[in-house]
Protein 1
Amino acid sequence: MRAGLLLPKVRAGTNWLASLLLGLATLTCIAVAIEPLPDALEQNSATGMVLLDRHGARLGELRGAAGLLSEPLPAGQLPERVVEALLGAEDRRFFRHFGLDPLATSRAVGQALLAGRIVSGASTLSQQLARQLVPHERTLWGKWREAVLSLRLESSLSKDEILRLYLERVEFGPGVRGIAAASRRYLAKPFEQLSWSEAATLVAVARGPGVYDPARHPERVLRRRNRILQRLRDARRLDEPTYQRSLSEPLRYQSLPRAAAPQHFARAIFTRKIGSLSRAPARGPSVVTSTLDAELQREVEQLLRAQAASLLSHQATALSALVVDNSSSEILAWVGSPDFFSVEHLGQNDGVLALRQPGSALKPFVYGLAMERLRMHRATLLADVERRFVTEHGEGFSPQNYDGRFRGPVLLGTALGSSLNLPTVSVAARLGVSTLLDFLRKCGFDSLTKSASHYGLALSLGDGEVSLLQLVSAYAALARGGEYRELVAVRQQLDPQGRVLVPQVTPGVRLLGAPASAMLADILSDERARAEGFGHHGVLELPFSAAVKTGTSQAHRDNWAVGFTREFTVGVWVGNFDGSPMLRGTSGVVGAAPLTSEILQLAMRGRSPAPLVAPGALVPVTVCAESGGLPTPDCSARINLSVAPGYEPHGSCPFHGRVSIDPSDQTLAGPGCPRAQREVRGRYPQELAAWAQQAGRPLIPQQSSKRCPPVATEGLGYFRLERPRNGARYVIHPERSADSQALVTAVQSSGELPSIEWWLDGQLVGRTVPPHELRLPLRAGEHRLEARSPLAPPVRSSFTVETIP
């Protein structure tokens, strides 16, 4: 009777429970359908950057604003042993459930009811991932939300995608997230190289980094690791020998000290200053395989730290260095300062990227352009004499050499190798500042953003701000025969989705032809070219052929040295980050050059250097040491040089000639003069005449002998002006300097004319000796030129100069 009354109540209760469960299931399905995927899925889980060297060795790390270190897993690649250990320990039916495991849930509920407390968890990996993505309180509502999100993840993602997200986001300790970061951080190896024991150890720690902390509770970690290994053996994932071997492995899990990455280099990549990728991630990168060579990087850092101490006596506190592989354009070493963490010396400034004045380090590019545009070569005669240049604004510019001396006639090789200022400015004036500035920008010096009129001719002496990065890039182009390429800092990178990103290769740009590049390399590697300015056997001498150039900015605020072989280019900057000057006399030879020499030798260690200049790129020539012309029997000093084919000098030496001298008064004698002596005397062009006289050079007399004067008829059948011809018309460009558009005179005669006076529009403008070349700046208007010689009647020509409208 009572049973009959009870049955309807039981049925009613069962129906009520069934309705409740059905309603909950319906509500859950609706919630799953409308639940959006969490925003955290779209966010970059890699908030920091691990920097690897070119061989995969760990250089260090940069952490993001949240202080987290994380690495993505490569696309399509999961750590097999870790996955097996994880599923065995946390979710054995992962591939058979749909986000919730009813069997595990029932077991956990039953154990809790019997024990009166929670004995084991029932969360699947999908639920654990949901909890990581959207943290919640441990309430019934929170667990239901976790279940809904877990089902939503399972409906939208594959099982492999869920595993990947879990393994990238699971915490392994303070600030360390993901299996890849944990493997490198705690086991010092990539996850692909983990043993079964190590994989089980990481899975054990991931269960609860606080509870299973190997530093504080190694026995707990060991017990759980062994339990995971046993489950793998029971599930026949491990055979007995592998299982026993894995059990016997000691616990190697250790908290390694965090490596300090080459901070300046890492920041340059992280902030996209260099090494930009074809598809950069929206947020910071994660795992970067850089081009650095870890061993060379450490050695360069040590050299700079050691040198920094010795340079304090020169009032220099900052040094920077850059090493580049010329064939690949890859950066092998980058040191922005001796001590990144030095507050006193502003160590976080990066001297590789800082803009400073390069001084004479820009000169090779001035001469390279002159070789291309003006067909200059190593034996080209230049004048190192005091001269005043007038700027476009009418201001005077009178450059001085570093040592305050003027050397008179110098060959281009000596002018460049010994870093003489006057010849460089003269060459720049002939090129034009605008032309030079355009070329320097093409060479990668894009920091020269101001106008040509702002820089003026001082640009050729380094009066403009460039970086060590730009300078080394440009010199590496010279080492490659004139081809400029952007430097490469990154070989590959894993983005937050594990995709491998490879930097785009930028096509090279031809700066100079191979002939000009070869001639520059030959000059910069020749001790003879440097001897006039720096002496012999200095710090620029290396045990192999290398081109080296130094530079010092105004007031000794910066000094530089850049050197290259066919294989490598090395650049060093020395100075102070606050811009204060160094001790006077601290040139590139004192500060930067010794470091450049040592670093270049480190880079070349174990390498057989290739010839700096390719065989056949240059041909030997013998010239007069003073004039650069082909030597005559009267040239007492001759030198052997090399120039590119097609650049060989053709004219004979114009400086040295044999004339008759009246010994009674040292005047120019005519034929048949008693006791006349034939002597070698100098014939210097106008711009060198004053120097030659002051230097005491034996010159052809300007005065004729009264006792036996030369006669105009002696061997002289004709005398005429070849340039300018009578009636000639010239056009000048208003934007080019007057000096670069000068008219060079030329005469022809059947006999030798020892001297000529030049009169322009009735005014004496100069005196010349053979070959009688006088530079006349062109000015608009009609002009009359007269050439007067003591041996012939004067010759005249009229010409007109017009300006391009």
Note: The radius of gyration is 40 Å.
Protein 2
Amino acid sequence: MRVPALLILLNCALYASAQNSLITGSLSDDDGKPVEFASIVLYTPDSIIVKVETTDETGTFTIANVKEGNYFLEATCIGYADFVLPDLAVLTGQDLDLGQLILNIAAIELETAMVSATRAMVEIKPDRTVFNVQGTINSAGDNGLSLLRKAPGVLVDNNNNISVLSRSGVLIYIDGKRLPLSGDNLTNYLENLPAEQIDRIDIISNPGARYEAEGNAGIIDIRLKKDTNHGANGSVSATYSEGQRARGNVNASGNYRNKTLNTFGSLGYNEGIYFNEMFFLSFQNGLELDEIVNSERHSDGIDYRLGTDFFLHDKHTIGFLVTGNNGSGNHASRNRIEIGSESSTMVDSILHATNASVQSVDNGTYNLNYSYQSKATRLNIDADYGRYRNETNHTQPNQYYSPDEQDLLTEIRTAYDTPVEIDIYTFKTDYETETLGGTVGMGMKLSRVSTDNTFLFYDIPESERILNDRRSNQFLYDENVYAGYLSFARSITEKWNFSAGLRLEQTDATGDLMAFLPELQEPPVELNYLNTFPTVGLTYQYKPEHVFALNYGRRINRPDYNVLNPFREQFSELSFSKGNPFLRPEIVNNFELGYTLKYRYNFKLSYSRTLDQITRLIAPDDVDPRAGFITWDNLAVQTIYAANISLPLEINKWWNAYVNLSGTHLDNQADYGGDAIVDVQAWTYNIYQQHTFKLPGQLTGEISGWFSGPGVWGGVFIYETSWSLNLGLQRKFLKDQMNVRLSVNDVFYESGWSGYSRFNGLYAEGRGVWDSRRASLSVSMNFGNKNVKSRNRKTGLEDEAKRIGNSEG
């Protein structure tokens, strides 16, 4: 194992005395309850903003790097009267603890009324956009994937690929921990993650040096609900959803805390049926193929989370965390393909291909953590192990019939098994200290990934399966990444703030395709490269309530482990996919210019240029003129210009709205020789709106929807417009302990996709729909004490896990 000398240098402790001061305090209401997510603004005497912070779930806030001088502080939160603390004197090197500050409920004219603090649906922070989804009615019966469709600046295309500001390669995190899935497995996980478990979604489009360099579009961190109660407490919820198929889930969570430990856990079960229909019309090599695909997937699974933190001291905490999910499913699809000549309307033959697959999943992650935190110094150490097992068995008969479908012309029966084993080991440290007039951060991470993908292809001439050694293989992939970073942030003047960082990552990887026949054996693919990833940020406070931000970052996107395997996975004998072991990592440079008005309204312009963009391409097969396939390859260059506007609106006391608008211009360029040229440009736009109404009878209503304009999927597929309208109704009972929500999604059933592709002699038109029009009923109940807070911490198993995936769900 070779570790660059820079890692040793980056982990040398940096000890220096902090010259600036720290202001701390907490907010509570008249009853002593913490006020969460309130805005804390520190001003100079002439009303110039010095720093903006927010309180956390316990009502606590911290303002770091405050220079000597006189200030005043303002605290604001919806439902409370504004609070101003004048005449704050800060002395050099002396921290200031303001203690507990009380916010009074906003004055109202009614004799009896209750006003509760509500987070804005979208919060714009210096390093991220926060999409608060907890309590939104139209999330009832919804799932993680559907919520991402509604998130500002996020697009989920017809194949459930996720992009941010039209950039692909986004990483998905759960509670600061990278989700160990990609491809269809990621889709399945998000579809089975009930919206009732989700508190908020953090969208970090340009992460700093501390974050993994992996992921061109940045990070989407899905934060699950946390208990905030002292003593013992918990919650239970159940959801039933009905469309053309039924789905349901039940979830329970609990928390217990005393002076020495905090134990928390959750358990959930979900079961449901998913279907989709697709239609394709393809022209290639003088042939016309008209295909209909109907598929249905039944899945069920259990997810669990168990952790304990031990409080050794007020500054020292150690803990462990175990998470996992176990599930099974079966998938059946029916392909019907009419085969004829492009120059004639006559059908020569019709192919019926029936796919049946059975899948089992067993995933688990294990984390040990140590945390030290003082007023000026923070240290975090994580050791992680992840174990991922996925086995899918497929059976596929291909039957060719006469044009009238009365006579069976020929039948070819095949089967294939795809067991996958992936083990990930990581160790990482992160250290921050207040020094040199700002904040210095440094850290390192070591990771080792070992994957074993086996592809066993069987011919079934009669009733017995016979292994086909020519089409079977085993793909072994081992990867070591050694990373280190250094970052620094400070205020330059009262109006200017600066941050910068540098991350280095050394990658050593070997992909070994082990053929079952000696004559098919190929030499291993070896990768060894060092990359540097600088980040720079600059903010300017023009006037109070006017903030400009300029950010630059360089990032990398390594190919998922499963798409490196070149095995051929059939949907039918005439339609298949295959990986590419020669894929190169893509490198992107991102620039973002943002403007925030009154801490609420956000405007952003961005530019990105990606070299070796990893993308999907659809092309005709070189061997069988009737067949087409989907594969992965590197584009030469992808250039994206994007704009995004986020507008939370308070129209009146009973009507709140949120509007998000985005527009993008994309340019894909590549030349693979011959007719295999990619030269695609497209404008696209996306609109999302959500309106919340306070109705009589203590009811709350919601109307939401999105509209997506035409755009590009993969390298060459041009998709057309789609849209969705959603309705919801909510009522709380038992002093707000019970919450009942009813919702209907995609009322007009218009969220399907359609489009066309032209590449390398193949022209294809396609459209598809899924079970998106659904009615859902959700009931949740909270119980127990109301002041416990479980520690929200990350683990080290982040960068490597997302690239795990399999092509079958």
Note: Confidence is low (pLDDT under 50) at residues 1-18, 107-117, 805-809.
Protein 3
Amino acid sequence: MASPDDTPLRLDERIPDLGFADADAALDCFLGWVLERGITPYDHQEETFLELFAGSHVVLDTPTGSGKSLCALAQHFKTFSELGRTFYTAPIKALVSEKFFELCRVFGAEHVGMMTGDGAINRDAPIVCCTAEILSNLALREGADARVDSVVMDEFHYYADRDRGMAWQIPLLTLPNTQFLLMSATLGDTSAIRDDLERRTGRPVAHVDRAQRPIPLEYRYSMDPVHEAIDHIVRSSQAPLYIVHFSQREASEQAQALMSVNYCDSTEKDAIAAAVRGFRFDSPFGKHVERYIRHGVGLHHAGMLPRYRLLVEKLAQQGLLKIICGTDTLGVGINVPIRSVLFTKLCKYDGRKVDILTRRDFQQIAGRAGRAGFDTRGYVVVQAPAHVIDNARLAAKHTDPKKLRKVRKSQPPTHGFKHWDEDTFRQLVDQPPETLQPTFRADLGQLLAVMQHAQEQGGDALPGLARLHALVDESHLPDERRAWVHEQLDAHYDALLRAQVVHLHPGPTATLDPDLQHDFSLHHSLSLFLVAALSSLDRASPTYALDVVTMVEAILDHPMAILNAQTAREKGRKVAALKAEGIPYEDRLEALEGIRWPEPMKDELWAMFDAYVEHHPWLDRDALKPKAVARELAEGYRGFADYIGELGAHRSEGQLLRYLTDVYKALLQNVPEAMRTAELTDLLAWLRALLGRVDSSLVTEWERLLAGSDAPATAGPPPPLDISADPKAFAARIRAELHGIVAALARSDWEEAHACMRGNGFLPADIEAAVQPFLDEAGDIAFDH
């Protein structure tokens, strides 16, 4: 198949005003558009087009790089030409956003919307991109009444995800009038899903799985040390290379180790330098990222700031990086073209235990190798365990068995390790992915959602309970698991009755407490608790704004890397104090046992929460999570870099940024306007200014979603946001920005001052030179006195 050009040929302009009444005419139109772009479809793509335009569901089980995106486009075009409404779903926001802009270019921005947990753009558009959970919630509430004519489910193997798989199953169970395109490169046996979908909808299901991978893969099991394996791959012209690790620490350490080897010549390094000219590497970890990148080595993991990860992706797409050291998350949908994949391990911690990779995970990551249009072959290399490699070399060196027995052999790691060998590797390569196993949970949030919808439709909430029980019966779960979920549902319903959230009337009928109607329209499960807790605070207190931040932090998930760093800092301070007091070593160890991260207002928060849970039994008793990260920063108006340095959390910059962004969002979304004092407004402005200086991409995208909730999308660069609409907030923001500049200048932190003055052309050295005369004058005055 020829690669498509970048000409943004608009598909929507090919459709008559009243749409296509004839599916054949719509198919001819779509194929004409495809050929005009210089694309010759593969056989499996043509088969998919025919099945979709004939009205069938399609399960598209084809390798990475085989053109699934074009098949998805065919589904969107078919539904759009019929004047229907089509949804694209994906597991992560980055994929949703990428697809949103792609579809804007093809169908016109006015016809495409996006919905995520943060907000929506053009939500009523005929083509909607959203996370799987958004569609699942819509399908659960509205069922067959939902305005969903077709759905493209990307990365459908998430159907088997332990925590999120239900979001991929619910639309299949509740949207009987919808046409589905289910896509993944690693589906395994889907016969049960296909049979159930056909029975449920009365629509045939086509299984397209006979595609050959366009770029074949060559697999190798390496008994060389990892540095030699890397060297062989790069020197053999098999770069760009993606080195897969299963922890951020290991990925960073590998990038550092590669600084001692030159894989880029001076011309290549000059090209990289030109590409990053003007880019800000001004965070604490940024200096390391810059060194790696200028050396031709990319680093990519969730602990990094988003702008660094995006830069690595951009440079990789331009072919400037020889090596990328990343975690396994890079293997999920991110567009980073690579020729070779090197697995440093075949075991990982899955959140519960260390285990061998599933065949699905292995094949998903390995499938990133081989670049369409560039490579004729991709390469996948798997390292043997390091101690096995060491011992094999010892055996080759010592041919005398008696001498070998006396040599001390390398031992496997004592934790975080499960053994693999070449047979393990072969099974991962040769065996098909595991059969997708369904997951289904019934929680109080789901029960309340369907009961609310039933009451809104007919005045009685009980049909919602019956509907959820019926949904459990129809689910893909085995019988014994269904029985357990039914029991959980009944237990949840009894809890709602006891708490008088549900009122039972003769008939029988049921109604929900009217105060509940706003409970689940907020953004966190503890949002209503937060409002109740905030009302107990004294707004005249000098710590009111900080106490509000503390309460907001208590309803958010823990940023564990940051909290662990706080704990280590607190223990270090305690040790220093005990040493100064002359406390013996054993007693010092005992004194450290109960120390953890700061938890201000812990006792007050738990007392209020315990009382609240008595009447809100659906809340998890572990949901309250006291901590003080944003509060610590705000108390001293500290800088992001200073705080990272204090905690020694350089590799977790990205997690701190995401957490502070969540705090900012929660403050705006969940603290009522009437509870915002001037001090809290200033604190909000300070936090927003800090986020803007570090990396504004996360919060700016969210602000655009909020600002454009009902506005058409734009295909080009988004216009700047008008931050002056609210005069009070605007004035606070100006004060916060100026405070940031003055504080940086007072510390002689020219890099931070440069970040505060973003976009004005001044470099750190220019700022230092401009300020130096004033510092000299101040020094002279101090000397005179």
Note: Residues 218 and 481 are 41 Å apart (CA to CA).
Protein 4
Amino acid sequence: MSTISALGSWPARSILTPAILLLSLALLAGCGGGGGDGEETASAGTASGHLIVPPNYGREDEPNETLSAAQELAASAVISGTVSAADPGFTPPGQSFTIGDLYRIQTSEPLNASLTIAADDLDLNDLDLILLNSLGVVIDSSEGYTSTEFMEIPAGALFYLGVRAFKGASAYVLSLTSSTDTALIPAAARFVPGEILVKWRPEGKLAAARPMGIAAARGLETEASFPEGVDLLKIPAPADGRLRPQAAGKLSLPGSEVRALQALTLEHLRRLAGDPAVTYAEPNFLRRSARVPNDPSFDLQWHYRLMNLPQAWDMATGTNEVTVAIIDTGVLLGHPDLGSRLIQGFDFIRDLQSANDGDGPDSDPDDPGDDPRGQSSSFHGTHVAGTAGAVTHNAVGVAGVTWQTRLMPLRALGVDGGADADIAQAIRYAAGLPNSSGTVPAERADLINMSFAGSGYSQTLEDAVRSARNQGVILVAAAGNSNSSAFQSPASLTGVVAVSAVDLNSQKAAYSNFGPYIDVAAPGGNTGADLNGDGYADGVLSTMGTDQGEYIYRFYQGTSMACAHMSGMAALMLAVNPNLTPADLDNLISGTHPDTTTRITRDLGEPGKDDLYGHGIIDAAQALIAAQEVPGGGATLPTGSILQVSTPSLHFDNFIGALSFEVTNAGIETLEVTSITDDAPWLILSRTSGTAPLTVSAAIDRTGLSQGSYTATIQVDSDATEGSTRALIQVEMEVGGKTMGDVGQVFILLLERGSLEAVAQAESDAGRSYVFETAAAEPGSYLVIAGTDRDDDGFICDIEDACGSLPEPVTIRAGQDTPGIAFVLGELASPQGGWPMQAVPERGPFPRLR
């Protein structure tokens, strides 16, 4: 059975390690030949198989030009269609134009809609995206003059989404993404319009390519250059005014220029992702501080007793040999409860409007406030810093989790949040790595507090996190405050301790995010209650300031506050054992550290690890005991064997038949995997033991299963001499529902590996279940690629096309058919699911055989 690499996705890339993650999709069933269109000779051979089309992919269902006939779309739908200015259509109330295609959308969560236009000549073939309310009244529009339109759709109401041919005609792809989608830009994500983070490939013939020249050729400007080949590219305003849709007949609604720039950003992202000189291209996502502020007050800090801090302080109160980097809005450097704790930091905010201090990056991390009006700034970083390490036992203000520690203030969040480009450089600075400031601290930080969150996976951010962790830095992040299971970054990134929030009753705070990536819980508070009856809201009390220059104290609530508690606690643990490593902390949190049986968390919720509290709420007293019991903290290089699996979870959508994972040895000595077992009769494992590294395929047998969701656990046991000898992988599987989509006619090509010229072709469609057999080809090794040709220009895998490829070459043998080929078709036009063209050096377009 052949397998193919799964498409890159947001949750997978955020919680797994891409370099070692091997996800594969296998054939759902055996497939026969048929569909060949050439003469076969004794010296020639063929290739056959079928294509996997995700079930959310479909085609326009006509007629759909009235409200009553509008085609209903679900979240995550990807629809291909055609529209012409000559088509009959719906005329919205108060308007004189018609909308050719209408789609009905009702969702409880926000959505992003993107329209990709296939026409080559966009001056003659201009399509627009129109949003209407339940009565058909226009409420928003995207009316640019490029091949992409982009729009945000609110939650909780009935809407109609219209595709209007302003002039001419074109095929198109309409794509919806929700906040939980595996999307390049999920609906909850915010990004800087007109900015793109790109990492260039350094190897091979591309080493001589000049990234600045490539960017310039695409009409982009290099705004900033960062270490490890990462550039921040800026899209200049088009000279022809294409961000200002003011032609006669255009709606030109407020905000149209911003929407046009968002659409242009998405278009450039897609095209850069197909450039062989590019490792990745992604939006410059914005992250927001994870807090919910309330009116100022002052009272006892109940949250410390909840995590047994007074008992811990009897053992240790911290040390000034430990440094905690606070990546946030900056810190009020003059606050009397913080001043003596602070060491030199840096301000990384590039955007002058966001910085709100009149200049760009500099060595002054003082917080000028994040309200440009100077009325209600959050001074969020000051609050976080005070919780982690305010000056304590000084008869002033409040206590910090650790009484003695150095705080390194790093400004990366300004007005309305912070951009990943700035955050990544702050992480690198804290870790003592090369960064955009051109300097590094005298001593790197021991841990980094990141009390902010946001949707959207960022390779730039993950690379920075990985580099910092490789330096031995512990990274702690807030889960986010949207009461959602949607993956949030940086908390869901591999190597980050993700912290959810509890209230005074040790219950999940109403606002706290949750999900499988949560590691631990800590007090976050609830400013809407006074459960202990002390006359004050049950928020977290810490250092604060006002826009008028006062230094005060205030109650906040949020996973930001929970994150600061965990960071302060990690600093206390480092005080009693300075050799603790990030891996030590991970194992202590999960209760799997080989050197101690002491649990540093108290289990909450369902027994064991769960999505609300992770492994439970941190217990400060037990944490210090456990830290002292770890000899040496594992700071030296491993000498034994260490068990590691590439993913903590596998999810089988209803069209996926098999997935793979890697079992590797992170140590030095040989690692024997003694058994690999599961607890579900429908799960079939390809390996049950062996010497690491191992690739294990997990196949699904849905025979006889009723429709619904199923769960299982894969258990990997080994003779590891360091760390845990056992690893668990959680499995989710769906049965029932639609299992195949429809992208229309697809052309399957065999390509010469060197020239990439097509030598044989087949055609297939949904009516044939996308089964194919190629025409005859001479014996040899070929690449297999498939795609649509929606604009009928003779090329597949244009930006508007569905496209996919087999990740390894296929061998054609004389007089034989090579069967069992299967791979996924993904939409190049869709911001969902990543980029499927993993095996072909250049991602099209490819000329098909006429």
Note: The mean pLDDT is 84.
